[in-house]
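Page 37, continued from 36.
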């Protein structure tokens, strides 16, 4: 009886082991190898380095740049103090929430204190679903240009020109919105003057 049961189960066990080896080991190894050859930067997390070759962060994850000499990212709700890559999260506050209104009002006040006038883009005063959005709308970046230019002693037109050069178009021209990667922008900004970027 046991022999017959084993004989009946044997094909299932062999198939399970074979599928596990193929899909759990071989396939991931082949895809990883192809990615390392074809797209090494993306395959390794899109980590960017400074002029000395030291890693400064991933282009996929927002960092909390706060100094006057750098472009600030979108607000974050990831972790206790925000920008915690191990705690990706949104606020999950409803549009009618008093806490959300208070948080937005506080961010608007901060933006006004930095000299921003006119309508503020939503991405300057609201968090993203992940809390780690590495990008800003071009409008949000342009509004910060006067502050950054003043802090670095640069011409505003030069800083705006840098922003324009960093704008990424929607994928295939239709998917998504034009955006600027904040880490890439700040890295390029560091090449315009000797001022050390504040984080």
């Amino acid at each position: 009886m046991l022999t017959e049961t084993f004989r009946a189960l044997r094909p299932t066990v062999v198939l399970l082991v074979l599928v596990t080896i193929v899909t759990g080991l071989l396939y991931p190894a082949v895809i990883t190898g192809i990615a390392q050859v074809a797209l090494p930067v993306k395959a390794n997390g899109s980590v960017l380095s400074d002029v000395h070759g030291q890693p400064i962060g991933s282009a996929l994850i927002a960092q909390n740049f706060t100094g006057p000499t750098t472009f600030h990212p979108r607000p974050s709700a990831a972790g206790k103090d925000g920008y915690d890559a191990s705690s990706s999260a949104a606020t999950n506050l409803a549009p009618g929430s008093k806490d959300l209104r208070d948080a937005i009002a506080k961010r608007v006040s901060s933006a006004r204190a930095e000299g921003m006038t006119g309508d503020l883009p939503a991405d300057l005063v609201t968090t993203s679903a992940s809390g780690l959005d590495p990008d800003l709308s071009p409008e949000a970046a342009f509004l910060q240009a006067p502050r950054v230019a003043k802090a670095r002693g640069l011409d505003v037109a030069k800083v705006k020109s840098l922003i324009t050069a960093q704008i990424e178009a929607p994928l295939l021209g239709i998917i998504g919105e034009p955006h600027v990667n904040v880490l890439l922008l700040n890295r390029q900004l560091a090449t315009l003057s000797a001022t050390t970027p504040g984080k």
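The first strand starts at residue 47 and ends at 49. Flag for discussion at group meeting. The chain has two domains: 2-41, 45-189.
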